[in-house]
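quick q for whoever's on today - can somebody do inverse folding on this one?? i tried earlier but teh output was garbage lol. C-alpha cells:
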C-alpha cells in the first residue's frame, strides 16, 4: 500500500526553485530516507507534503488523500519533527506537551510519560531554560505522543549527544515495528544506513537517484588506490573509471564494471601496492553530486 505519492510536485519561491517535478512513492511500513545537503530541497518537500506551504504545481497524496483538499484529516495521523523547533518560551514542557496532545482525540498521558523518560526529558522545566538538544527532545516527544501512522523526521538528530541518538534510533525502529511508516530526511548518510530500507537522493531541488541501502554498497563503485612510479592509463579500462586523482606516487579512482577486466589491467602495471575497497556512503553520495 502506498502511504505517500508524489506526482511532479513542484514549489517555486518567486523565481527561485525549491523543488521541481518530484515524483516517488513511499510504501506502508517503510523507513524511507531522503538524502541531500542543506538547501537541496528536503525541508521544502516535507513542508509541502504537510500543507504548511502550497505547491506551485503537481500533486501529492498521503493515505490516498489529496494533501490540499484533505489536509486536516491527513495531519491527524501524522507526526512531524522539523529541523528547527520553536516553542512558547514561558511554558513548562509538560504544559506544552499536554497542549499538543489536546489536538488528538485520545488520552496521551501515559505515552508522554514513557517517551519523556526514554529521552531523559524533565517535564517541569520551562522551555526557555532548555538547551538546544533538550528542545529537540521536546520535539521528538511531541511528534510521537499520539502514536502516528506516518512520521516525518527532518534532520532529527541535530543537537542530540551520541547516547541519545542511539536511544532515538531504537525508538524509531520500535515505532516502525509498531506499524508506523517513517520518512527520514538527513544529510548524514551513516544515519540513513542505520535506519532506512530505501533512499532518494535530492540535488538542487530534483531527484537524482533512488537506491536500496544495500544496493548502494553492493552494486556501486569500488574505490581503488594504487601505488606506482608510473601509471600507464592505456592499460586500464578507462571508460569505467571516474574521479581519477594522481598525487606523487599514489593514484585513486572509482571503478564500476567487470572486476576481472580491472584485475587484468592492474596485472599489467608495475605496482608497489594496491588497495580495493568499498567506498563509504559519503563517497557514494559525493559521486552522485559530482
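ok took a stab at it. sequence:
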Amino acid at each position: 500500500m502506498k502511504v505517500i505519492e508524489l506526482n511532479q510536485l513542484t514549489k517555486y519561491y518567486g523565481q527561485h526553485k525549491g523543488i521541481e517535478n518530484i515524483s516517488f512513492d513511499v510504501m506502508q511500513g517503510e523507513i524511507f530516507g531522503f538524502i541531500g545537503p542543506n538547501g537541496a530541497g528536503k525541508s521544502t518537500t516535507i513542508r509541502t507534503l504537510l500543507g504548511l506551504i502550497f505547491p506551485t504545481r503537481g500533486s501529492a497524496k498521503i493515505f490516498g488523500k489529496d494533501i490540499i483538499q484533505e489536509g486536516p484529516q491527513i495531519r491527524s495521523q501524522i507526526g512531524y519533527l522539523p529541523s528547527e523547533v520553536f516553542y512558547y518560551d514561558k511554558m513548562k514542557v509538560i504544559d506544552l506537551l499536554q497542549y499538543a496532545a489536546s489536538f488528538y482525540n485520545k488520552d496521551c498521558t501515559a505515552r508522554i510519560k514513557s517517551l519523556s523518560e526514554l529521552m531523559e526529558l524533565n517535564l517541569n522545566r520551562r522551555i526557555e531554560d532548555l538547551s538546544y538538544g533538550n528542545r529537540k527532545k521536546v520535539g521528538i516527544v511531541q511528534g510521537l505522543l499520539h502514536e502516528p501512522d506516518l512520521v516525518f523526521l527532518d534532520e532529527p538528530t541535530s543537537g542530540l549527544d551520541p547516547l541519545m541518538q542511539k536511544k532515538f534510533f531504537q525508538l524509531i525502529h520500535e515505532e516502525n515495528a509498531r506499524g508506523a511508516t517513517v520518512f527520514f530526511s538527513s544529510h548524514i548518510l551513516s544515519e540513513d544506513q542505520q535506519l532506512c530500507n530505501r533512499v532518494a537522493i535530492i540535488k538542487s531541488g530534483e531527484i537524482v537517484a533512488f537506491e536500496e541501502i544495500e544496493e548502494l554498497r553492493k552494486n556501486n563503485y569500488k574505490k581503488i588506490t594504487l601505488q606506482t612510479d608510473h601509471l600507464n592509463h592505456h592499460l586500464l579500462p578507462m571508460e569505467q573509471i571516474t574521479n581519477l586523482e594522481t598525487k606523487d606516487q599514489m593514484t585513486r579512482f572509482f571503478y564500476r564494471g567487470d572486476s576481472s577486466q580491472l584485475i587484468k589491467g592492474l596485472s599489467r602495471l608495475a605496482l608497489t601496492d594496491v588497495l580495493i575497497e568499498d567506498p563509504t556512503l559519503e563517497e557514494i553520495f559525493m559521486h552522485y553530486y559530482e
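fwiw The mean pLDDT is 89. also Residues 2-216 form a domain with the Rossmann fold fold (CATH 3.40.50.300). so keep that in mind when u check it
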